[in-house]
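Page header: ASSEMBLY MODEL / two components / 974 residues total.
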Amino acid sequence: MYSRDNIRNFSIIAHVDHGKSTLADRLLELTGALTQREMQEQILDNMELERERGITIKARAVRLVYKAKDGREYYLNLIDTPGHVDFNYEVSRSLAACEGAVLVVDAAQGIEAQTLANTYLAFEHDLEIVPVINKIDLPGARPDEVKREIEDIIGIDSENAPLISAKNGVNIEEVLEKIVELVPPPGGDESKPLKALIFDSYYDAYKGVIVYVRVMDGSLKSGTRIKMMATGSEFDVVDVGYLLPNGMLPADEISAGEVGFITASIKSVQDVRVGDTVTTASNGASEALPGYKDVKSMVYSGIYPADGARYDDLRDALEKLKLNDAALNFEAETSIALGFGFRCGFLGLLHMEIIQERLEREFNLDLVTTAPSVEYKVIKTDGTTISVDNPTNMPEPSEIDYMEEPVVRAAILTPKEYVGSIMELCQGRRGTYIDMEYLDPNRVQLNYLMPLNEIIYDFFDALKSRTRGYASFDYEFEKYQKSNLVKLDMLLNGEAVDALSFIVHADRAYPRGRKMAEKLKEVIPRQLFEVPIQAAVGGKIIARETVKAMRKDVLAKCYGGDISRKRKLLEKQKEGKKRMRQVGSVEVPQEAFMSVLKLDE
Amino acid sequence: MTGIYVHIPFCVKKCLYCDFNSYPGLRDMSYSYGEAVVREIENSPFKGADVDTVYFGGGTPTSIDTEIIIDILAALKAEFSISDSAEITIECNPGTADRAALIRLRGAGFNRLSVGCQSADDKILSRLGRIHTHAEFVDCFNSARSAGFDNISADLMFGLPGQSPEIWCDTLEKITALGPEHISAYSLKVEEGTPFYEMKKRGALEIPDDDRNRAMYDEAVDFLKRRGYERYEISNFAKPGFESRHNLIYWRLGDYIGFGAGAHSFAGGRRFSNPLGIEEYIAAVRSSGRMTAEKESAENMMSEFMFLGLRLDAGVSEAEFEQRFGAKMTDVFARPLNKHLNLTKALIKENGRIKLRPEYAYVSNIIMSDFIM
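Prediction written out in full:
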């Protein structure tokens, strides 16, 4: 029977690799939701890629039934959250659907940047935090210190935090008991007009979009005409119900405090925005739930089929991915160098990589991608403002009054010995120092304002290599800021290659251009003739390298008329050329277009 | 225009770079091998064909009893219609054919000799694992001349371990002074499965890099031109009128019939090949086992027409292409032709022929591979 007292809505928050998914599996296992065999796969991360990367990309939710030591049966709604900075907004909507959060901290590694970022998000939503120390089985485990860290840095009591090993199934029940004990039951009022928070959705070929909601007020049953308050679209509910580990359980209605699903023959995820409020079409709520944001792309990149004939396949694949990913945007674009492709907008770099990998893996496409870009604002001399996310579309310098670029607030957590090196890195990337706080005697949080276009190149890699992997990093959009930006063109054999252009701060143009020319020299093989590589800003050459002409590439003696052998050699060579793009008279390997990402500055 | 190739897979000692189908120390088998070749000739489905060139290659054909060779040639003459003006070549290595043998061969009908010289530098010859010195090459050459061979080709190699530009020039100087009618000059290629390959892998083989290799090639082209040898194919040079008619058949995608172990044939649009090993080959002939044959696809033939023909200084003829394949070269190869005639300008069109610009001959693979379909 429905009673809010025995409902607990919670999320698990953790830094990447601290064991969130494994703990979720154990909770499912312990509550009998799944058999051991089903547990072989981590259920919540149900995309192959997510499992491989050990991160959760899309939130999922599941209802567990737990008979607690007090003898009562509880419905525990576990709402999983994506564990990466690109999906901050989605995390915040998932947290908004909960009353509590289990904070998993690795007993060896302690608190990391995402631990903090997610905990602060949880605080913002007034969630009750249930700290859990995981991986106590590791040789380097230091649970007492980590407990102290949690108290000192986050300021929550962790005296009685369960010490667990999710991997080995140690002390999992204690976690369930703490959830029941600490997380408050949901509030809400059944008699008020319906307000349900959308925290996730996915597209099902048979049922249309399946909407994951947390009902805040009122109740919802099939047949009701509902309205999405932000988009204004209306639908007739087909089914409502609960989310079980092995499928959906239809119910007569779902009510305030509960977590469940809605199906309403919705054709497109575009109509179902995460963070939007579902209400009834008639006598609905007058005010939506707070916190809704239009998801905006932060990073853009051109995606082209390696084989131009597969343009239609690429479009179909992007459309299919978009069915399930409202944050993915794309529109057709044409490049002189790369032909027909798409300009795609992503939440961030990880989102971009995931989409690219899924296109290649799930749709068997060979892609050429261009260097990522952010969205710049160009204020033209005629007073108009345009957005530019593709360097090709940047107006002539004479038409530009000034430009603005997105700046993020970056938080870097690091052992103190790397502070100097990180400051050097951030300054080199045009970062503006805000402040630095000691989280404990050994660990520091550095706060910087940084232009996003400095982060999307190889900032993660540079940070990792400078700190031997110990620093962690988190960022959020802060503002647009006026900046002296220029378009850097790369010329091959005297011709500018559109797909290699990028927008860069004027002070950084020279070193970038030089590095880029050096990199291209490395990746472009010798050709029939000498190929000059030039970097240019506004028509002025700022760097030059040369790929020398090929000197020798000739068949050996053909004896006894064995022509097939010669043909095979040439066939092999032709096969190798498939990784090449003909750009003007120059053959450019596809990876060259991503070179800018690996400049190793 | 049909050519006949006879493979003699015997040699005294395998050179360190050699990946040809050749076996040292099996001379005992040469008699039964010779009988098998004769039998293959007698059973050939192409018997009676008009033949314009005959080529005995190896291995070292002169490393076995001269009479075996002569029996094979006799069988060919009996079973095929070999023209009076036919070019009949035999390969020979210094130290394997004395003057008497050369006289015997000349008398039997061989009128062209291809002698393996490789280098005029004895140190290099020994590093290559050759069995002869330069003096022995000179002896062999002179014996051939006195035996009546007035069409001699010398094989040279460059890009060799320890070979400086000076040593290469010295070889060119010494060979051209002897005045053979034809010279072929190939770069060393380190092939998998050879001792050189293993040496290279463990860093024990130092050979000139591509830039120096190219310089040697360019030097050869210039040098030989000054001495009256025209480059008529990427690696072949001849005094006027002495181009190898047999090899021209390969490059012009003409018909040829191969006999012997591992020999290839191309006739009537089909390719055939014999078993590679000597014993397998003999067994196959004895059991009247047929050569493996495959029909060549039109696409492959068109590609071959291009990539073989472009090796020649004369290039390929558009009219001949159309006559042969019933399609226009400019349609079939529109893309690569456009690319290399207009964009890279590595090809030129002259009087209905497409040719490789001489300066691109030595980087021709990158161009030819565009003609693979």
